[in-house]
Amino acid sequence: MTRTTKAVMLLLLAGVAMGQVKLTLPDSTAVPGSSMVVPISVENFRHVGSFSLTIAFDKDVLTYTGISNPPKVGIFNATPIANANSNGAVAMSWFNVSPALNIPKGKLLDLNFTYKKGTSALTFVKMIPSSVTDSLANSLPTTVKNGKVSARVVRQGPKKAKVPTGVK
């Protein structure tokens, strides 16, 4: 390989790495019985024409209650609430020819749950090369960071000792 060929290949690899889509689910805590919002964050989500994602969760720990703040343009679809809670997974897909989604760094949408108890992994599943595509249907390289939900420790201040009556 010539020096020029090596340099071109290195530049191409650097370009792919810099433009790689990142999907992130956070580590969150909640109080049993509370509603919670779990954002799906993205980076390098540029010129996206479609996405198809499935998030798995422990249905003994979380009750899925829906999605909020999905993309405002295009066709969006998600698993019905009853099916998601039965399967412990919510699938969602979005498609639009124009305009494409452009989110350099930020929130894609919110998953809504009621927290029961315990700890649940939040896991991207079934990620395939066509999970995220550009507006020309070319697969975009994608990495994921899974998250989890666990109990929030509620700390109470020290209790005051009761002073018996008649004692000063």
CATH topology type: Immunoglobulin-like
Beta-strand percentage range: over 45%
> Architecture, CATH level 2?
Sandwich
Report the mean per-residue pLDDT as an integer. 87
**Intertermini distance:** 92 Å
- Pattern of helices and strands: HEEEEEHEEEEEE
- Total domains, how many? 1
Helix-strand makeup class = mainly beta
The radius of gyration over CA amounts to 22 Å
Looking at this protein, list some descriptive labels.
14% helix; Immunoglobulin-like; elongated; mainly beta
Summarize the structure.
Helix content is 14%, strand content 48%. It is built from 2 helices and 11 strands; from the N terminus they run H-E-E-E-E-E-H-E-E-E-E-E-E.
Structure commentary:
With 168 residues, the chain is mainly β. The protein has one domain (31-151): Immunoglobulin-like, CATH 2.60.40. Helix content is 14%, strand content 48%. The protein is built from two helices and eleven strands. It has helices at residues 3-18, 81-87; strands at 21-24, 27-30, 35-56, 62-68, 75-78, 89-95, 101-115, 120-125, 132-134, 142-145, 147-151. Strands 1, 2, 3, 4, 5, 6, 7, 8, 9, 10 and 11 form an eleven-stranded mixed β-sheet that branches. The protein is elongated, with a radius of gyration of 22 Å. The N and C termini lie far apart (92 Å). 22% of the residues are buried. Residues 4-18 have low confidence and may be disordered.
